Amino acid sequence: MNNVLSEKDYQKFLLERLADNGYVIRKASHFDRLFAMDREMLMKFLADTQPDTMDYLRKIYKDDLEDTIVSFINAETTKARGSLIDVLKHGIEISNRQLDLMYTKPATTFNPELTKKYGQNIFSVMEEVWASDKERIDVVIFLNGLAIISFELKCNTAGQSYQDAIYQYRTERNPKTRLFLFKSGCLVNFAMDLEEVYMTTKLAGEATFFLPFNMGNGEGVTAGAGNPAFEDRYSVSYMWEDILTKDTVLDLISKFIFVEVKEKVDDETGKVKRSENLIFPRYHQLDVIRKLLADVRENRTAQNYLIQHSAGSGKTNSIAWLAHRLTSLHDADNKIIFDNVIIVTDRVVVDRQLQKAIMGMEHKAGLIRVMDDKCNSTDLAIALNGNTKIIATTIQKFPYIVDSVKGLKNKRFAVIIDEAHSSTAGKDMAAVTMSLGSGEQFDGDVEDMISDEIKRNGKQANVSMFAFTATPKPTTIQLFGRLNTKGQREAFHVYSMKQAIEEGFILDVLQNYTEYSTFYQINKEIEDDPRCKTNAAKRQIARFVELHDTNISQRIEVIVEHFRTTVMQELGGQAKAMVITASRQAAVKYRQAFEDYIVKKGYEGIHALVAFSGKVKLPDDETEYTEAFLNGFPEDRLTKEFDTDAYQVLLVANKYQTGFDQPKLCAMYVLKKLRGVNAVQTLSRLNRICPPYDKKTFVLDFVNSYEDMKAAFAPYYTTTLLSNSVTPNAIYDLEAKIDAYALFDPADIDSANEILYAEKVTGKQKQRLTFFLQKSKKLLDHYEYEEQREAVAAMRSFVRYYEFLLQVSCFEDVELHKKYNFIAYLLAYINIKHPGAGFNLDGKIKASNFIQKKGEEHVSPNLVAKPVMKLPTAEHFGLTEDKEQRLSEIIDEINSRTGKSYDNDVVVKAMLQIRDILMKSERLKTSAKNNTQTDFEFSYFDDIDDALIEGLSQNQDFFSLLLSNEEMKRQVLGIFSEEIYKSLRDA
């Protein structure tokens, strides 16, 4: 029986492929192990490409020239601040003469001499290379005689895999051997079998950290770790077909690989500790940059791009590489495509790591300007008009420069958005496009000016946007996504959460998830008081329960004991936890209860910090609490202090739920309702790996269900698709709904817009504009309070929806834009307050019989991706935002009182079932056509029991609850009576 393929066969196969790529096959005897070079190839390259310089140097050094050059290169690459990558990029200087050690691809074709030299780079390969007397390496690749890549090959058919190659590098390769010397020897070391590839840039014995360098297996919802299986070639064939081609290797060396320097002040000595990493791109990073550049080269500034890369994807470096490459990108006609690259981040302080990464790629003065806290909008405007190639700023600065930046229509901009999310769909992003837009400025009538404003708010001909996010919302996908062949919008490039988890870059935070439920009883006199049925009263009751001392002390006991017994010893005793509280008051009270419990129990080695914004007072306590007051140090020191061994637990109220990177966080205790993207971003604080420890995560949730969390994560687990699109119809539907309230005169809208677009507005005109707004406000005041709220909610929806529509489409309707302007001003002018003082529950509520009941423990999430999302439409089953909020509060109350865990989606689905049954009722249809809505509701509630009984088979648990509780039935189903009444009346 024949051996299908041996390791030697595989090695020979690889060398043959490299020879096909133009590599010179060299014998291992040519290897100089003292300098990790092929001296003959080095001297040939120098003689062929720089003959005049070599002749000059030979006259000086004569027969010692080769030894002198070799020793000089070795000295430059091995000195403390030196590296092989720097020497390759910048060459060396001997006797005041420059010697280049490689030639990069010219950005244009204008210089045929440089193009010729680029073609003279010599790629060679050796097999069975002895790096030392005890170390024989399968394959080593050289560029112009300098060793740059090593391979340990394993063959699956011979019973070995890449893991055996990794083991070999860790245990049998000496990091001090010249070939493997960090920064001075090979730039990268690959462990490769027939199916997978792993890499490292630094050998460190057993502590060597290997990263996957795989393409990813599958596409879209099936994407995961590994490589695809092919019928006619090996899964790792991309290595010799692409990665090891001359163009790609030179591209990697000249444009991607760089030395990352990190500096940290030692707390004990006060000295700055300097650490270095050699950064080599992971496959998805290389892939996204190359695909983006190819698309931009072809389409110039015509497109926007959405990059959906999971946490753990190395986003900072991806953005740095993209920014750097876009600054010098030329089109097919050798013309530069972008004048400026602007990096926009939501972080108030622009990421220093980003700046260092860009500077690590190219040390060029003036290449990047960071707009920090000391810079204002004027500084930003000057930078945009200047010659700085890369400008990093915060999104908050853009609105202030809309009117100050002039004459930019002839400049082209690339805008890279770090962590694109909902803020990119509002006025801030509109300000970005208006600032950089190429719309003409001209004198014209109001309608012309409005049309111009609409054009400037949309996609600009001179601006391309590159939005990076792990969790794209539907609005983000609509703004930046691309249509696929199925008519869905999707990201330009995806590195999924599933792939990141499978590759070990992040952890699955749903792997150890435990639910806790809180039950309580409210005293009878409060429960029976009709004034306590209002939403405001229910909110007070919920807040009272949330801050009840017994509730807090019970939960703190669960939290502290779980942390002590289950979490504390993780990461060699360095594990930390985060407690997500529902409010600032809760954060203060939980912190106090935490410290009291620790003291009472006499526990040592557990201390908590608290994080919230502003000042807060507690009931019956005049003390003004702040984060700094409770912690004993300023806010800006919190992240540094929390990283020390002095603190183990961080209690937060909104702060640090997103964008906080602390690898030692192992546990999260959730005391707050979390939904959608917010749930994903909050729980994802736990997902960072913490080498060399095998980190485990724990979530104890007192408020949310495990199913809720699975549902929140599902859209972002693989790729996120948008199945519907914004249409003007929904805007016109909303307009009709607003018009029905008859709040404004069309003539007033026209006059108001004349004032808004006047070149100079007089005091008299301002008074007149106020008069128009006052008229509309008085018309609104004629309505009952609930109708006022619904009218305002409809107007707010109209404004948000319309602003979004302008940015994602070519929609243009001058009359509608006039109405939008008027409504936007009206919303700022009106201020509805609830009539009367309401009902004060202070001191009247009593809660008792608190129980913290442990629910199900979930240790294997088996998360199924649900990639298709839909944009929020103008109406959702007749529910305004206010009604959705009311329903949510009612369901929360039902859950608290019954120990159930219904969610809003379940209830809405149940309502749809009831509606379908009720819509078939001839009796209700007759009642709707002949009665007012108030009279109709008598028939409506009579018929509901029949509908509930008929629907029992579909949702027995929830419908049985409503049948047995008249109050809950009226609360829940009363929300939908208006929608059903109108549907039957119009039927």
UniProtKB/TrEMBL annotation:
It comes from the Bacteria. InterPro entries: Helicase_ATP-bd (IPR014001), HsdR_RecA-like_helicase_dom_2 (IPR055180), P-loop_NTPase (IPR027417), Restrct_endonuc_type1_HsdR_N (IPR007409), SWI2_SNF2 (IPR040980). One of its GO terms (biological process) is DNA restriction-modification system. Residues 277-495 form the Helicase ATP-binding domain. The keyword Hydrolase applies. GO terms for molecular function: ATP binding; DNA binding; type I site-specific deoxyribonuclease activity. SMART domains: DEXDc. The keyword rRNA processing does not apply. Keywords: Endonuclease, Hydrolase, Nuclease. Pfam families: HSDR_N (PF04313), SWI2_SNF2 (PF18766), T1R_D3-like (PF22679). PANTHER family: HELICASE SUPERFAMILY 1 AND 2 DOMAIN-CONTAINING PROTEIN. This is Type I restriction endonuclease subunit R.
